[in-house]
Design a protein that fits this description.
disordered N terminus; 489 residues; 19% strand; nine-stranded antiparallel beta sheet; globular; Beta-lactamase; Lipocalin
Length: 489
């Protein structure tokens, strides 16, 4: 009996040791990111006051690190709860809010939006005589409206109403917002379109967009450091990062006021942006999601615009990149003296978010290096599900080689197809900016289409008299035809 008891104890100890070993082996030390990213040195080099970063993997936040200070006027350090102005990262939140309200039966995003406006109505235009734009078209920038971004205001300024904003009675604009094309026929980034959405929401529900977002998104998700309340309003948080100019000095009060809240007025932290992204990722796999449904997550992250849409756009989310064979939803935000990004994979729950309180020359080099290094260091690599690849005939290679106007993103820059080691590669300044290198191989697929490594759209080339004259970009069920302008062979 004694030996039996000893045996049970021994087995228990061994099982405990094996279990502990298994749990330990599953743990991953992410401290290597701090050692590799060298953000402290980057802040000093570029005179960037502060930087906040969160990385998430397998649907969990695994790394959170803050660097620098909230304000050049004090030595108070940024912490995980320090909120930044997020600029255009507000847009996918406004789009998400609209889709949640639609799912609750409170609005219909396929209805003409003008019928929901009370304080102001859409201007008359030849482009809308037979096609009144819907909520959904404003949400994915296909409504055709003008007005891109907006100037900030500070305490002491006269803050315009959103009606004055739409009438063009604000800096940067001298006329009422207008339509540039027939709704649904093209794509044009429009902050003004999101101001129209903000007005429609507030006119419909008799609540501010800040109240609606808090009620339907921020509070249910526990985003305690996220708000659309502005610095001149009651309830604005006190733990915030002030905006700085290129010399590292605080801009006026340091607290920009943004009346165009739905377009660019949200304040948040990388941790809260990560929580939101993980909720969307969980909803996409329909597991562990608490607030956002599977249907809404799929809808807001699907590609809904390709033509002239910078490689692909959803409802508020950008769908332009394909790092490491993953499909990503992302958003970049930039206001005067502050900006950041959030990137998240459509599957497997990976991504990152960062915000910085400095002007573009100070923050963009730090943000770009951080993005590139995280993509490399985290070693996220999705197993390829590409169709079978075939050998590209020499005659086809020779036809494709050349320098073209940018056919990938439509950003008026050169895009080259070159040969290297008997393979074709596409060189793009934009891909190089985000990847840090230009080794984007052009693969020839068995179905006759082409795939560029780390570019999410498939391509089909059209030829006239043996020369490529157009390319068709294909994504899911969407496609768009782009004229190819060859500048040099």
């Amino acid at each position: 009996m004694k030996n039996f008891t000893y045996s049970l104890v021994f087995i228990g100890v061994m099982l405990s040791a094996l279990t502990s070993s298994k749990v330990w082996s599953q743990k991953k030390d992410y401290a290597f990111l701090t050692d590799s990213l060298l953000i402290d040195q980057q802040l000093e080099k570029y005179k960037l006051p502060g930087f906040s970063l969160v990385v998430f993997e397998n649907y969990k936040m695994v790394y959170s690190k803050q660097f620098g200070i909230k304000s050049a006027n004090s030595a108070e350090k940024i912490d995980q709860n320090t909120a930044f102005s997020t600029a255009s990262i507000s847009k996918p939140i406004t789009a998400l809010l609209c889709h949640i309200l639609e799912e609750k039966g409170l609005i219909n995003l396929d209805d003409p939006l003008d019928s929901s406006l009370k304080r102001w109505h859409l201007p008359k235009s030849k482009f809308t005589e037979h096609s009144s734009p819907t909520w959904r078209q404003f949400l994915n920038h296909t409504a055709g409206t003008s007005q891109s971004g907006f100037a900030d205001y500070y305490e002491g300024d006269t803050i315009p109403t959103i009606k004055q904003s739409l009438l063009g009675q604000i800096p940067r604009y001298d006329k009422e917002i207008e339509f540039l094309f027939t709704p649904g026929t093209s794509w044009e980034y429009s902050g003004g379109g999101y101001v129209i959405i903000q007005m429609a929401l507030e006119d419909t529900f008799n609540q501010s967009v800040a109240e609606l977002a808090a009620e339907h998104i921020f509070l249910p998700l526990g985003l305690k450091n996220t708000t659309m309340i502005q610095p001149n309003e009651k309830g604005f948080p006190t733990n915030v990062a002030l905006v700085h100019d290129k010399d590292g000095k605080v801009i006026r009060t340091g607290l920009p006021i943004t009346p165009q809240v739905g377009a660019s007025g949200m304040w948040s932290t990388p941790a809260d942006l990560a929580k939101l992204s993980i909720e969307i990722q969980n909803a996409l796999r329909n597991k562990n999601n608490k607030v956002i449904s599977h249907r809404v997550a799929k809808r807001v992250t699907e590609v809904t615009a390709l033509k002239n849409a910078v490689g692909g756009w959803g409802y508020g989310w950008q769908k332009s990149f394909g790092y490491n064979n993953y499909d990503w939803f992302s958003c970049n935000g930039t206001n005067t003296g502050v900006g950041g990004s959030v990137f998240a994979t459509m599957t497997d729950g990976n991504g990152f978010a960062f915000l910085a309180n400095g002007e573009k020359p100070n923050r963009i080099p730090v943000m770009t290096q951080t993005l590139r290094k995280i993509i490399t260091l985290m070693n996220w690599e999705k197993k390829s599900d590409n169709p079978e690849i075939q050998e590209m005939p020499l005659s086809l290679k020779e036809k494709l080689i050349g320098t073209y106007d940018d056919f990938l993103y439509g950003q008026k820059m050169d895009t080259k197809i070159i040969e290297k080691n008997n393979r074709l590669y596409v060189q793009s300044d934009l891909l190089e900016h985000f990847k840090g290198k230009n080794d984007n191989e052009l693969l020839y697929l068995k179905d006759g289409s082409f795939k560029i490594i780390d570019y999410p759209n498939l391509l089909e080339f059209e030829f006239t008299e043996g020369k490529p004259n157009a390319v068709i970009l294909k994504r899911d069920q969407m496609k768009t035809r782009i004229e190819l302008i060859c500048k040099e062979k």
